[in-house]
Amino acid sequence: MSQTKKETSPIVKAGSRQHEALSSTSTRDIPENFIIRPTGTVPQLKILERASLFIMHGAGGGAREAVWYSVPMIAVPQTYEQEIISHRIEEQGAGIMILPEDVTAERLQKTAEQILGDRSFVANSDRLGDACRAAGGAKRAVDEILRYVHTTTLFN
After folding, report:
1. Residues whose CB falls within 8 Å of the CB of residue 152, separated by 6 or more in sequence, listed in order
2. Mean pLDDT across the stretch 32-50?
3. How far apart are CA 34 and CA 153, in angstroms?
4. How many CA within 13 A on the CB side of residue 57?
5. How far apart are CA 46 and CA 37, in angstroms?
6. In sequence order, what are the beta bridge partners of 79?
7. CA 4, 8, 14, 18 torsion-angle sign
C-alpha cells in the first residue's frame, strides 16, 4: 500500500480549548504551510492518503486509519486507554509515543525527523495496514454480526 506521499503541510485539528487559543493567535504567527481547523472539520482520511507522518493522541480509530494508509505516527496520549494504544504503536514499530508532559516543539521536531528518516516506521505501518485489510474491514464485520444474529437462539 505504501506510496509516495505528497503532503508536506502540517494539519492541526484542535479541541475546543486549543481552538480558542489558536483563534486568538495572529495569523502572521502561523506558518503558511499549516492548516488549522476546529474539531470535527478535518477530512482526516483524505489527508492521511497523502501524509508522511500523523501526530495524534493515540486513539484506536486514528491509529487504524493511519496504518491503513501506511502512515507512521507520533502519539501523544491524553487518556489511559490512549496510552495503552500508543505503547502498542511503539512496540509494533509504527511510531513513537511522547507523554504529554514531555512534549516540546524541539522534541516533536526531533521525533518527526527520526521517524521520517527511518523507512522502517513506514514499513511497519504498512505491515499493520496489510493485516487490517486482510481482516476484511467493515464489510466482514457486518457479515460476522449478521451471521451471529442469524445463528444465535438469542435473536431467533
Report:
1. none
2. 75
3. 55
4. 11
5. 15
6. none
7. positive
Q: What is the pLDDT of residues 2-20, one digit of tens each?
A: 444 544 555 555 454 444 5
**Cell numbers 449478521 label which residue?**
146
Positive or negative, the Cα torsion across 118, 135, 51, 98?
negative
State pLDDT tens for residues 103-122.
988 999 999 999 999 999 99
pTM exceeds cut of 0.70: yes
Give the rounded distance of the alpha carbon of 69 from its chain centre: 10
CA–CA gap between residue 38 and residue 44 (Å, rounded): 13
d(C-alpha 61, C-alpha 90), whole Å: 16
Burial annotation 28-37 (CB, 10 A radius, 16+ → b, else e): eeeeeeeebe
Residue with cell 502572521: 28
User: Residue 37 above 90 pLDDT?
Assistant: no
- The torsion angles phi and psi of 129, rounded to 5 degrees, stand at -65, -40
Residue 21 reports pLDDT greater than 70: no
